[in-house]
Amino acid sequence: MARRTTTIDRSRIRTQPARRRVSKVLARDEARPLAAGASVADLLDSLPDLLGAADLNAAIDAWVRAWRCDRLVLFGFGAHLIKAGLAPIVTDLMERGAISGLMMNGAGCVHDLELAMMGRTSEDVAESLDTGSFGMARETAERLNGAIARGRDDGLGMGAAIGRDIFESKDRYRARSVMATAWRLEIPVTVHAAIGTDVHHMHPSADGAAIGETSYRDFERLAGLVAGLQDGVVLNVGSAVVLPEVFLKALALARNLGHRVERITTINCDFIRHYRPQMNIVERPTRVAGRGISLVGQHEVLIPLIAAGVVERYDAASRKPARKSRKSAASESPRKAPRKTPGRRRRPGGKKK
Description:
- The protein has one domain (50-123, 136-332): Deoxyhypusine Synthase, CATH 3.40.910.10.
- Helices cover 46% and strands 9% of the residues.
- The protein is built from 14 helices and six strands.
- It has helices at residues 40-46, 51-68, 79-83, 87-96, 106-118, 125-131, 138-153, 158-167, 178-185, 208-226, 242-256, 275-283, 299-318, 326-332, and strands spanning 73-77, 101-105, 189-192, 233-237, 265-270, 291-296.
- It is globular.
- Residues 325-353 have low confidence and may be disordered.
């Protein structure tokens, strides 16, 4: 039998004044057109104070705050950052003192070495796999495996061992090497290898014991860095599995040993939001305090933009007396952010959406 339905009576709805309703989007938060000849700082200030644009500015502000306060900035990345041509951006940030430590996966070493050694990298995997030649570059394997074995004997971790090898070589392009620059500047760089994932593991020159020992030394060194991460920043650029898992274990170890690592800013940058980075970088480490930020975009666009914003804002902050801005106070407080001064655009901060 068909059910009888009653038309709803809209004449009895309860209304409220629009101006009393809480609204998440305000006219003062809208983007503003950018004039020709504007700076990167102007571009960032012109973005809407909403959603991803607000997160981008909050990430830059957190990095600048940590840099100015001499707190740890731990920059982690997968191999794609190197393949996307961004090593010079990272080396420049290290030269400026904006990065305190690096963490990498094993594949990043391959591309950093090949670019330093011969100015090119990244083979056609599909085509070379068909012919059985994938990953069979002789010099790449011999250099990496030799550096790792010598580093094991000298008590070094994998990152230091490979960085030293590139720095002391006669490689034509070694100046653009992330790992060689880290060795020269005495910036710790930790490499977290998964056995069998990197091309040099296939070669007879590979020593599994040396790979394991040097990578484990780097894990212990990373845990030591993470123990001092309070009020610092950690970035994960493009590693979907290895670095998020390793960072979470290093954080667990540091907290278990009594180190206070709670008030931190974590930033994940990738093309899409993966499960492990979202959980192990953005959400779980910041449950007690701090803030996790997820930025989605292509590395070759997003990372230079972030780097330029960090450099400009650090320079601007260094040229004026240090004082706590309303924006910074708002980003650190759970209370509602103060209204902007009429006629002035406040830089986007950590406003909750």
